[in-house]
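Problem: given the chain below (646 residues), write out its structure.
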Amino acid sequence: MTPRTTVLRHATAALAMASALLLGTLAPTAATAAEPEAVPSRVLTGAQLAASWTAPLSTRGRYVVDANGDRFKLESGNWAGAQGTWEGSGDVDDVTNHQADQMSHNIPLGLDRKPMAQILGDFHAMGLNSIRLPFANALVHDTTPVPDAAVTANPQLKGKTPLQVLDAVVEALTADGFAVILNNHTTSYRFCCGLDGNERWNSGQSTQQWIDDWVFLAKRYQNNKRVVGADLRNEVRRDTWNDPNWGWGNDHDLNKALEEAGNKILQAVPDLLIVMEGINWQGIPTDLTPHGRPTLTPVATLSNTLIHSDKLVYAAHFYGYTGPHHTGATGMGETTDPRYEDLTPAQLAQVVDDQALFVTRSGQHFTAPVWISEFGAGGRGDLDAKERAWFTHFTDIMVRNDTDFAIWPLVGWTDANGRPQDSWAMVTYATDGTRLGVMDSGDWRTTDWNKLVDAPGKTGQVARTPRWNMLNLDHADYNVSATMLAKPDWSPGNRKGNCPDTQRLVGLGRGDSRGLCTDAGRPAKASGAWTVVTDERYVTNGDWASGYNKLECPRNTFAVGYSVHRNAMAALLCAPATASLPTTDRVLWFDHGDNRPATGGSNASDWAPGSYKGQCADDEYLAGVAYTWKWTHGGVPDALLCRPLA
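Solution.
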């Protein structure tokens, strides 16, 4: 959940799902900022940052890399405001009805108080290389110019709409070397997160409108290569009556929605990273009802596959006052479950791994970078010792794991008495522009922040490693081949799964219609037509599964897709290779149990739980599938024909 300072989070009257939390009192501080005392050792100017990396970004294994293949660790902050700050009750024009009494006017905070170039200079001083920019869908359609008072310190922005202000912010950030990741935070301008009408991507709008807004923004910034990513939706959670789910195939299915949006964006703008955050909350938070924070745990058995498989980044949020089964509420909606800050350092490390960082393990169907795209704590005032200890322990975990991160939030206001109105902000500005930040004296977070930014980690070239990605035909077609998306339906009336164009089919589940793709060995595809196989006409190398129906690819082609009717095999899709392929047969039976390589691809993860799985070795290609309707087998795959790549 996104934190709020000195403001109780909205109670969930219908469900007792309150998000209330009082973050603590603020001690008086000097009205003028001290000279910078403690900044990270790796602080770059705009010119130095711009020269240090080349857009666009992509992924290799658990790492984000730039266009040269060099590690680009996301060391980020959230410049909030364009998602809205109104808390949902009272006059929207009354500043006291806004988060921490800060009215953003639906643009990034601080533009009324500090010239943009100086704000960016403070971001550099924090050691950041990238900015997460939250926005509301309402901003895309808002044609009302922001008030002049909202941009007092940046008069060049007068008369602009919120979207035009966002344009100027994006241009300034990227010109100063920062990578920008856009984050769809909310639907309306109401501040997140509770029962606020922004719970899901299709709360207050259709899924199609949400996708259309994303494609519009992707195209709007497509010529600015330093706009590197689309963070699809913030903190998806239960609304009054319904939970989001992961894989049910309905209009509450976050897994399905993220893939649909991600692939539509990549079809329009192939360069962007696609950031997917897991489910933030399910269930009714009482001690008598099931509830919890799944985060990325469902990815272990149902991961995501994009048409460009090197563009996926997963994200998760952690705050000390919340917990694996704790909403973060105080009073209504509070349960007896522990908060993250109640856990020992060892327990916290295990929970963070279970909920998120397991995804970075190499060689699995889910392997991808994990970006902790929100975390934070209040930095000034008499705060809870538990929260301070949690922040230290949590940053230690990120240091040990070399984790990509984004602190929440970057910018806030300083009040007339020289105190931050939102003590969570990394830097706050008074009306006269005076700065008070984590780089100035009096902020206990400085040591932990500099530890995190200066932490040693992987740098330089990241070697290419094989990828494994799953196909999920549980409810519908699963077409992640750019080639086949541009062609007519190749198996009408059946559910179809196609691997990404850089991969081949290597495994099938028995009875659940799931598949596994890989680029290990990566046989190059020729430019010829792909072949749909529905019968045994290409079984020319002997009967390798006597008494069974067989689908076999033609010579010098390999399987890249399949179709099923219910869960019975219907067809294979085969792509031509550029070179001659060996025809030595190995028949791999999996009708009585799993038959997977002991080492190699995705061997430590389950991509078809509850079903037997057959999987060719990493140095083989899948050339055929055998199945039968005898013995109540129901036409599901029983054996694979595997052949060596070389």
